[in-house]
Design goal:
Elements: H1 6-27, H2 34-41, H3 45-51, H4 55-62, H5 65-79, H6 84-96, H7 102-118, H8 122-148, H9 158-178, H10 185-196
Helix pairs in contact: 1-2, 1-4, 1-7, 5-6, 5-8, 6-10, 7-9, 8-9
Length: 210
């Protein structure tokens, strides 16, 4: 038999993951059966089980190094920006571009189902924590570098800054899962204003009185 290429194997695994997300978005995590995933992927049960032994294994694959690499590439490009404001604006444009489009609607709804699973499933929670830790490390490096340039308040805990950034993204993804018609561009404009300091236009407090 001819040897199957690694590229073909990864493409087949992604086909199954995409089919699973379609099912999760329609029915939820627990009601979805492996048989339904097989049907959605247009593959036999044997073909699917060759790659994944369970739904949990499919979820683990959905959070694998491929996605991490994509996020890391976004972070690497952001660091190359000439100044902190442009870097933050570029990050916002890149990450929020994922929340729109026909595929994004399925992803947003499926992610909402998986967040619920994180609360009760140790295996899924561990996978999510591991993936987020990798991205958080890259984000924290950006924050620390900005603090060293005096662009960010050095008194702010860098890890908490990263968590706040995550919340801005995850919170909007939740809103898009509830209502896909929620406009993205105005929200991204507000996020950029929050991150770059243009949100507040009132009088600044007198340092001598604070």
């Amino acid at each position: 038999m001819p040897k199957v290429s690694e590229q073909h194997l990864e493409a087949r695994k992604q086909q199954i993951v995409d089919a699973a997300f379609q099912c999760f978005a329609r029915k939820g995590f627990h009601p979805t059966t492996m048989q339904e995933i097989c049907a959605e992927a247009d593959l036999s049960a044997g073909a699917v089980y060759r790659y994944f032994e369970s739904k949990q294994a499919i979820i683990a694959s959905a959070c694998d190094v491929t996605q991490e690499t994509s996020d890391q590439e976004l972070l690497a490009r952001a660091i190359e920006a000439p100044d902190t404001r442009q870097m933050l604006q570029g990050l916002a444009d890149a990450f929020f571009s994922r929340v729109d489009g026909p595929d994004a609607t399925v992803q947003n709804r499926a992610i909402l189902q998986l967040w619920a699973e994180v609360a009760v499933n140790d295996e899924v929670r561990g996978t999510f924590k591991e993936r987020e830790a990798t991205i958080a490390d890259g984000m924290r490096a950006i924050v620390v570098e900005a603090q060293e340039r005096d662009d960010f308040d050095v008194g702010l805990d860098s890890q908490s800054v990263v968590r706040a950034m995550f919340a801005l993204y995850d919170g909007f993804r939740l809103q898009k899962a509830i209502d896909p018609s929620t406009p993205t561009a105005p929200y991204v404009t507000v996020v950029k204003a929050l991150l770059t300091g243009s949100f507040w236009t009132g009088a600044m407090p007198d340092p001598a009185k604070t």
